[in-house]
Specification:
about 425 residues; alpha+beta; four-stranded mixed β-sheet; 14 helices; about 25% strand; binds uridine-diphosphate-2(N-acetylglucosaminyl) butyric acid
């Protein structure tokens, strides 16, 4: 199992290019199942989650090739039963359910398990499929859907904490081939959902209200092949901006969509991080002293839960008290105990973490528990004095393209150590 060895205290300097978004490409890959014609997807990041989704598509019968960031999928003949073990392992694979039901009018997909960031139920996905006419049963760990007829419907997809990203993706995809009109209320507005909708439109789907909480989908008889370039990863961009700030560095971020980063940039500005737009790029540098700011995670356009852990590292370095409240995933504080090993003082009170920032951080061996927690530990290691070893780095490889290489290009002393 690989780990990352970081010698901290080096200000990051230089330029970084942002990759395609993991959370956009996964549902887009699932959407290729909606047609038998070839789809070409570009700016596909080299991530283990992408390779995994490729395997899932292939196990369903699709021809899949991925070379130099270009993915080609032809799902001419597919089956509706997913490989139990493959699908169970990756939460994102649940978004094959909508396309399979739409194309084959039936599907059997293993239930995704819980995960370290919370229970992650799929009741809203199933409610949406049922409203479209799907008959759902759960047996032997599979969700089985039979939908001889899919009929457009009005569907409220809001849940306990608001909209659902992959739930919206699933129901939008299923509705593209349903009869009549589907209206999804409380749809997720995340840029990744917009990117998927744009891909579906390029395939011939009729969708309006894209990017708003009300999506209207008029079903069509069939979809065709399409080409698409994946939206840049806003979470990767935010992670590099915070990396520049916590190391007192100066980093030029190229290729990000700054309009997708408003909530994060606003909080960085409040915290005293200096940012300058230069054309389509963003120069991030640490000005004077950092200030503590309170943050609450919310669905887009609010502050993303996927940046909560990284932002906590910045707050651990800001003298004073900040309160970080997690409203999307109740258990997404696994990084807190590991940050404590580096000297951070953070207490959890219900859905909030109270950060007493400004203590010096010093390197230590730490254990990554999920993707964004791992990113936070890498940031903390870059900022801390001495050496930090981040174990179980496979979590990072799921969602950050060549993160160690990109950081090294910015001057970080970071090495991958193989410990098999
Ligand atoms: N929820 C329900 N019922 C459902 C679905 C969701 O109660 O049927 C709840 C969840 O438990 C959670 C909230 O609704 O409290 C929002 O979850 P959502 O469905 O939006 O999350 P997701 O679609 O499963 C995607 C990303 C996550 C990201 C969230 C929120 C992918 C592959 N995953 O998950 O990404 O945190 O949206 O933005 O797109 C990550 O990249 O590290 C990651 C975890």
């Amino acid at each position: 199992m690989d780990s990352l060895l970081i010698k901290g205290g080096v200000p990051l300097r230089g330029e970084v290019h942002i990759s395609g978004a993991k959370n956009a490409v996964l549902p887009i890959m699932a959407a290729t199942l909606l047609t038998g014609e070839e789809c070409v997807v570009r700016r596909v990041p080299d991530l283990s989650d992408v390779a995994f989704m490729g395997k899932i598509l292939a196990s369903l019968g699709a021809e899949v090739t991925l070379r130099d960031g270009e993915l080609r999928v032809r799902a001419a003949k597919i089956k509706g039963v997913g490989d139990y073990d493959l699908i169970r392992k990756m939460r994102g694979s649940i978004c094959i359910l909508g396309p399979l039901v739409a194309r084959l009018r039936q599907a059997s997909v293993s239930l995704p398990g819980g995960c370290v960031i919370g229970s992650r139920p799929i009741d809203l996905h199933l409610k949406g499929i049922a409203r479209l006419g799907g008959k759902i049963s759960i047996d032997s760990g599979y969700v089985r859907v039979k939908a001889p007829k899919l009929q457009g419907a009005e569907i409220f997809l809001g849940g306990r904490v608001g909209s659902t990203v992959l739930g919206t993706a699933n129901i939008m995809m299923a509705a593209t081939l349903a009869e009549g009109v589907t209206v999804i209320e409380s749809a997720a507005c995340e840029p990744e959902v917009v990117d998927l909708a744009n891909f579906l439109i390029a395939m011939g789907a009729r969708i309006s209200g894209v990017g708003s909480p009300t999506l209207t989908i008029t079903g069509v008889k069939e979809l065709h092949g399409a080409e698409h370039e994946v939206v840049p990863d806003r979470i990767e961009a935010a992670t590099f901006a915070i990396a520049a700030a916590v190391t007192k560095g100066e980093v030029m971020i190229h290729g990000a969509r700054l309009d997708h980063l408003q909530a994060v940039l606003e909080k960085l500005r409040e915290a005293g991080v200096k940012m300058e737009r230069q054309g389509a790029s963003l120069l991030v540098k640490r000005g004077g002293r950092l200030k503590p700011v309170d943050v609450t995670t919310l669905p887009y356009p609010g502050f993303p839960t996927d940046v909560q852990a990284q932002f906590m590292v910045l707050m651990a370095m800001s003298r004073g008290i900040s309160i970080i409240t997690e409203r999307i995933f109740e258990a997404r504080f696994m990084h807190v105990s590991e940050l404590a090993r580096l000297g951070a003082d953070i207490a959890i009170e219900g859905p909030s973490a109270i950060v007493k920032g400004g203590l010096p951080l010093s390197g230590a061996p730490v254990m990554a528990s999920d993707l964004r927690a791992s990113a936070a530990l890498v940031l903390a290691g870059l900022a801390a004095a001495g050496s930090t070893q981040v174990n179980r780095v496979y979590h990072l490889d799921r969602g950050y393209e060549k993160i160690d290489q990109k950081l090294r290009q910015l001057g970080a002393r970071i090495e991958r150590v193989n410990e098999t």
